Amino acid sequence: MADLYSQLNVARGASEAEIKKAYRKLAKELHPDKNKDNPKATERFSRVTQAYDILTDKDKRAQYDRGEIDEEGNPKMPFGFGGGGAHPGGGRGGFRGPNGEPFEFGGDAEGISDLFEGLFGGAGRRGRSGGGGGGPFGGFGRRAQRPQKGSDVSYRLEVPFEDAAGLAGQRVTLASGKTLDIKLPPGVEDGTRIRLGGQGEAGPAGNGDAIVTIQVKPHRFFRREGDNIRLELPVSVDEAVLGGKVRVPTVDGPVMLSIPKGASSGKVLRLKGKGFTARNGQRGDQLVTLMIDVPDDPDLAQFLETWKGRGKTNPRAGLGV
């Protein structure tokens, strides 16, 4: 399998921002929705998504760079074990030491088993005494390896802001072309992972899983703050001075909001239960900040000129100016 950095077309020392940019470009090109008749594209989409998930996880990226895990995130065998044929420079069976030097076994299986005993705490000797059934390595008493499940497949799903707040159902398209409807969990946020059992790659012991990572799209005027939603609401001068009811957008649709008389810019009003759904199932609130919109109106300017000074107080007196 190709190097993870090569799969994303980035250099090994690429920053997280460069990796994200490269992934977005490839994801748009290779997404199954755009390549329904191209199985190779959907297969590569799965690989670049898996590469992205590993390289944007700081711990996994460090393990990969040190050679501790492979391109699928699985641990590598210690000391380079696992080769079947001979390697250049001598050695039999493909075994190598911690620094890559080949082991040369010149003798019978007893000597080889003693080597394993020294490395792995007596496992080789137990394999001899147990009739070849208890040691960890093939040919020296290895227990038959259990069948493995297929690999997990990673996906990334963009969810509209309003859908994430209201936990609206979503549809995901798998690399196979199959579509599934999923439920968003309470407390969903950027990076939330949803595991779909048995929807990954096939294997001897069954299918792996599909792991869907959620990305909540930003909204053009709503802003999330914990489980609450912030909104800056423009109001006219007369609405602020005289008060009244105005329509306000929420993630559930418009509602009426009462503006108190004499409201000033920066005043915060609360709409209960119009925020995000928390992990305990309760919804946060929508916090509405009033912003007075002063028009460029000659009549209003003339009125204020005549009104200026009548019973006027200094609104900055509390600041000592």
Compile the SSE list and pairings.
Layout (H helix, E strand, L loop, with lengths): L3 H4 L8 H15 L8 H17 L2 H8 L43 H12 L2 H7 L23 E7 L1 H6 L3 E4 L5 E4 L10 E4 L13 E7 L6 E3 L2 E9 H6 L1 E5 L6 E5 L8 E4 L14 E8 L4 H10 L14
Parallel strand pairs: 1-5, 7-11
Antiparallel strand pairs: 2-3, 4-5, 6-7, 8-9, 10-11
Brief descriptors of the model:
3-stranded mixed sheet, 321 residues, alpha+beta, HSP40/DNAj peptide-binding domain, 26% helix, elongated, 4-stranded mixed sheet, 9 helices
Overall description:
By secondary structure, this protein is an alpha+beta fold. It is built from nine helices and eleven strands. Among the domains are: 68 residues, Urease metallochaperone UreE, N-terminal domain (HSP40/DNAj peptide-binding domain, Sandwich); 85 residues, HSP40/DNAj peptide-binding domain (Sandwich), CATH 2.60.260. It is 26% helix and 19% strand. The strands form four sheets. Strands 6-7-11-10 form a four-stranded mixed sheet. The longest helix has 17 residues. About 19% of the residues have low confidence.
